[in-house]
Amino acid sequence: MKRILLGAVCAFAMTTSGALAEKVNIGAPSWTGAQAIAHLIAEIVESKIGGEATLVPGNNAAIFAAMDAGNGDIDIHPDVWLPNQKSFTDKYVDGTGNVALSGNAYEGKQSFCVSKEFSEKNGVTSIFDLARPEIAELMDSDGNGKGEIWIGAPGWASANVNQVKVRDYGLMPFMEPVRADQSVMTATVGDSIRKGIGYAFYCYSPHAIWFQHDIVRLEEPAFDPDQYKALQPSEDPDWFENSKVMTEDALKQVQIAYSKSLEGRSPAIADLVKNIALSGDDVSNFAFEIEGGKDAADVAKAWVAANGDRVDEWLGIGGGSATMSNDAVMEELKAILKRVEELTEMIDG
Predict the structure, then answer these.
(1) pLDDT tens digits along 267-319
(2) The domain spanning residue 80 has which CATH number?
(3) How far apart, in whole angstroms, are the C-alpha atoms of residue 335 and residue 346?
(4) Is 72 left (phi over 0), alpha (psi -120 to 50) or beta?
(5) Residue 152 is part of which domain span?
(6) Are the CB atoms for 229 and 245 separated by under 8 Å?
(7) What is the C-alpha separation between 252 and 306, in angstroms, rounded?
(8) Which of 343, 349, 236, 239 is nearest to 4 (CA)?
(9) CA of 12: how far to CAs of 5, 58, 113, 282, in Å?
(10) 208 contacts 284 by C-beta, under 8 angstroms
(11) 161-181 confidence digits (pLDDT tens)
(12) Are residues 135 and 239 in the same domain?
């Protein structure tokens, strides 16, 4: 009898402790804000929940498809910009229903920028100023007769929108749209400012660049949904020809997306993702520190240590940490085991 009871309790203990070791694979897109939030989630999972977190590089299409599959290859997209990525949320959130969005969003704004010095020196305040031949000439770094304008990185939905904008704003005869990794843009902005030459680029907030350099947004026509038809390749193979964008972007809502299968496999992590609430300033500060040379994991670790109350709120606990709660569960199991021993001794007696 004693052996049976002890075996049952031990089996329960092993099952419970195994359930506490939650695991998650976090998608890690290339832009700095997404990298920062991915590392933040990983740090909380490991240091507060006591689970395992792995970052998996990938673009939007790959991450959403993996979340939809629900097999744990990728469970989370840390930084979904809407409506930029609406084609993916239409397909996987509203369509298949296998992906969900967190309840808390921060606000993002997208524009085109130049350095403040270049703007003031040359009277460049509007996106249409880039169609002035003398301005395009000042931005021509390769001597091909056109200035360069960075529109985003390969694979970004926003880069597709910006390519349409360059066309529809009438800039194509004067400016050449360039797609390159974000690090190329950041380095080129700094280099152009040091050399006193012109450079136009897609800019957005939150982003580290607002802390790194003195830049200004170029004016665009006010957002008008009737003048904003931005299709993506996943929606229409002729997306470029069939799009029309002659207005600035609306303010963006940026959220975390996650596979609904995570709720069954790792409920504590799913609850965390649902409750995370960041501001644009939070993300800009993360990005600034990372762009300044700090390791993203170290930035996340320091932030979690300094913001315990906020993290505890996301975890739904009033004090301490989820790791401490796990320890409390194990203590409870020990107490149960001790009580079983006492009962069996009474039975044997």
Answers:
(1) 999 999 999 999 988 998 998 899 889 999 999 999 999 999 999 999 998 64
(2) 3.40.190.10
(3) 17
(4) left
(5) 108-245
(6) yes
(7) 28
(8) 343
(9) 11, 38, 60, 41
(10) yes
(11) 999 999 999 999 999 999 999
(12) yes
pTM, entire model: 0.69
Between 295 and 333, residue with greater pLDDT:
295
Cβ atoms of 151 and 159 closer than 8 Å: yes
Q: What Cα–Cα distance (Å) separates residue 239 from each residue in 41, 165, 166, 170, 231?
A: 34, 13, 15, 18, 5
Tell me: pLDDT of 17 over 70: no
CA distance 3 to 146: 83
* CA 146, chain centre distance (Å): 33
The Cα–Cα gap between 268 and 109 comes to 32
Give per-residue pLDDT as tens, 192-229. 999 888 999 999 988 888 888 999 999 999 999 999 99
Read out DSSP for 272-311? HHHH----HHHHHHHHHHHHTT--HHHHHHHHHHH-HHHH
Number of domains in the chain: 2
Domain assignment of residue 257, yes or no: yes
Q: 309 burial class (0-12, 13-18, 19+ CB within 10 angstroms)?
A: exposed
Would you say the C-alpha torsion 338, 342, 348, 349 has a positive or negative sign?
Answer: positive
From residue 221, give the alpha-carbon distance in Å to each of 135, 218, 225, 324, 328: 20, 10, 12, 54, 58
